[in-house]
Every structure is written in C-alpha cells, then in structure tokens.
Amino acid sequence: MRSISGAVGRRFDLDPILKAAVSEIARTLQVSRCFFYQLDDMGFLRLTHDWAAPGVLTRLEVAGDVVTPDAYQARQTGRTVRSDDVAKDSLFGEAMDRQLFNELAVAAAVATPVVFQGTILGLIGVHQCGAPRNWTADDVELLELAASHLSILMMGCRVFADQGTQADALARMNEDLSKLYVELAAKDAQIDRFIHLISHDLRAPVVAIQGLVDLLRKGYENEAPDSKPRRYLELITHSADQITNLTGALLEYARLGQSSLALSEVDTGALLREVWQRLALKAEDAELAVFESLPVVRADRAKLSQIFQNLLENAIKYRSPEGRLIVDVTCQESDSQWQFAVNDNGLGFHPSQAESLFDLFARLKEVRNKPGSGIGLASVMEIARLHGGTAWAIGRPGKGATFYFTVSKKIAERPVLQVAPT
User: Fold this and answer.
1) Residue ranges in the chain whose pLDDT is less than 50
2) What pLDDT score does 259 carry?
C-alpha cells in the first residue's frame, strides 16, 4: 500500500494520479488487468484509465467504454464485488455477461466503488485472465484501501481545481475593482470641477446682478413702493436670492457624495433636542414629543444632525393651518440597523407621491408656493445611504406624514478617492 500511496500522493493532477494508481495496483496484486471508471456529471461510468500486463489486451482494445459485469454490479450495489471464477459465479448468469468476459479472457474479477462521504466518484477493479484465482482477504482489503485513498486524492484534486478557478476569478475581480476605483476617482474629479463651477462661475453673475440692482435702487428711492420700477427691482432681487439659495443647497448636496464619515458614538436623543431648540424659534407653538429614549448609535454626528434638521424643518414648513403642530420621533432596533421615524400631523401627501419625494428638486404641486429648494429630502436619502441605510415616507392628504430613515449597525468605511491631476 505504501508503494501505491507514494506513486499517487506526490502531486494533485488527477490524470497522472489515476494512471499511476492502476499500474501500481496491478503490479502489487500481480493481476492481468487493472482499470478505473470515473462517474461523469450525468451519473454514467466512463472508462478513463486501463492497464494490462504484456500479452493481455486492454479493456479499451476489446470492449471500448463498455462497463464490465463486475463493475456494473459494484456500481449497482455500492459494495465490493468479488468473483474467484466468473464462469461459475451466479452473479453473471446472462449470456451477454459471459460473452464479454470471454472476449476479455477474464477468469476472476474484483471491483470496488471509490466513495467519498457516501458519494460514488468512480470504480476501480482488477481482472485475472486465463485461469480462476482465489482472491484472499488481503487482496480485497488492499484494493478497498486503494479506493479509499483515491477518493481522498480525487476530492483533493477537485478542491485544488476549485481554488485555482476561484483564485483566477478573484484576480479578475481585483482587476475590475481597480479599474472601477480609477473610474470613481475620475468621477469624483468631475464632481470637484462641478462644485467649483457652482461655487465661483455660477455665483459670480448673480453677485453682479445684485450689485447692479442695488445701484438702480438708489435711483428710484423717491419712487412709490408699489411703482413699476421698484416692483421690478424687488422681483429681480428675489430671483437672484433664489438662485443664490439654490446654488448653495446644490453645492451642499454635491459635497455629500464625496464626503467621508466622521464616525463616533452619537446620543440621538440629545442631538434631536439640540436641533429642535434651534428650530423651535421658527414655530413657537409647535411641540416635539419623544415617547421613548432614543439610542446611542455609531454615526457621523454632523450628518445625522442634518437629517433631523431637514425632516423637522419639513414638518414645520408643511404644517396644517389648523391646530397645533405636533412632531414625535421614535426608533426601532433590529439585528442589523436602527430605524428612526419622524411623524407629524401636518398637510401630508397622497401615497402616489411617496416614491418621488426624495428625488432631487422634487416639490409637491399643492405646496409649491412654500419656500424651499427641493434638495432637503434628497439630502436625507443621500446621508442615510452613506450610513448604510435608506429613507422613505408614508402619508395621507390632511392626515400628516411619517418619514423614516435607517442607520446600519455596520457602516462601511468610505475612503476618499484620489485621482492624479490631469
């Protein structure tokens, strides 16, 4: 058995392993022929390796890929099949079996399955030609031991082959990720240029318009406040202010996608009270209700503050003209995330509008006369995504709305991408 193990155990290339195995088993048992069948993906036995002693025809030369009766019986029973004299053995009573054994000059045979953890991988067998042979228990045990070794080696080859395939796939994935990293860095560079355009090139004409309006206003100081020149100048000023506010909000939104997270332990209850204290001056008759203690979460404190501020400002802006504004904030914990809910008793919205609320520049048709840029909720969604979560809302017209956002408990660190200057 050592000679067989030594022959097949030095490498993990299956073909030479099986070739060495059949020749070494034949030499050790001193048989006329040794063969190996491998089970294919369809469950059929395929003769892959065949060794014959000098002057003895190989299986392939006589019967091709046909399964011999002894191998067939071993496959069907899942056990070793032993025959000291195939001509007299009741296992092989069919005329076709006798004919095939005669053509191969088989007088005695042993075949055993190659099994790994209950799964048949193939079959290995030996033939004695010319005269019957009384197989000893040691003969059968050695063949079964060889089959056991082969099953382990075959699985080892499969694992190594799978590892090689996985390594190739991983290398391709790493290459693709490297290309994607470069593309993302280039995109970030484009965003940088876009931010510069908003910050300088787009603001400069607006500042010039505002300066000219101030000069013109001095020439019409004696005009009545409702005169056409004064009214036109006020409209120009209002439009310029809108452009300034919109570009500022757009600039802030564009920077969100580039920013990394400054993660820390954030007491969301304390943070919410801070935000509400700033906003309550705009709505003295509004009430914030927190019915349960809010958790401490790992997040970017400044960005989480922006989410609360945007949602609370939204509630104040779209409050119902009837009754006192009440906003309540709750949080539910799951295994993977924190889910916050900001609920108000304001104007609400139709359920069909829920999906578009977080789109950039989205505004409800019914309240377009309200001030705003249409970027606040889009920023809420972007910040939630940076924290490994998302945002959504439910509401009914005149029945208030609830805005949800989630924060993952395992936030992926986002590196700041760098690109070489062009």
Assistant:
1) 1, 4-5, 7-10, 416-422
2) 67
List the domains of the chain with CATH numbers: 2-162 (3.30.450.40), 261-422 (3.30.565.10)
Nearest Cα residue to 153 out of 347, 40, 11, 260: 11
With 0-12 CB in 10 A as exposed, 13-18 as middle and 19+ as buried, what is 347? buried
Q: What is the pLDDT of residues 238-284, one digit of tens each?
A: 777 777 766 766 667 666 766 678 899 999 999 999 999 888 777 77
pTM assigned to the model: 0.49
Strand partners, 120: 115
Residue bearing tokens 């190594």: 160
Which two structure tokens, joined as six digits, stand for 155? Answer: 């699985």
Span 27-46, pLDDT tens digits:
999 999 999 998 887 878 88
Amino acid found at 270: A
Q: Which long-range contacts (CB under 8 A, 24 or more apart) does 1-4 make?
A: 1/28, 1/142, 1/145, 1/146, 1/149, 3/27, 3/28, 4/28, 4/146, 4/149
Helices (H) then strands (E): counts for the chain = 11, 12
Residues in Cβ contact with 208 at an 8 Å cutoff, skipping those fewer than 6 apart: none
- CA dist 328 → 278, 307, 402, 404 (Å): 17, 15, 9, 12
Helix H, strand E, coil C: the string for 16-30 is HHHHHHHHHHHHHHC
**HSE, side-chain direction, 13 A CA sphere, residue 261:** 23
Q: How far is CA 68 from CA 65, 98, 176, 301, in A?
A: 9, 10, 51, 75
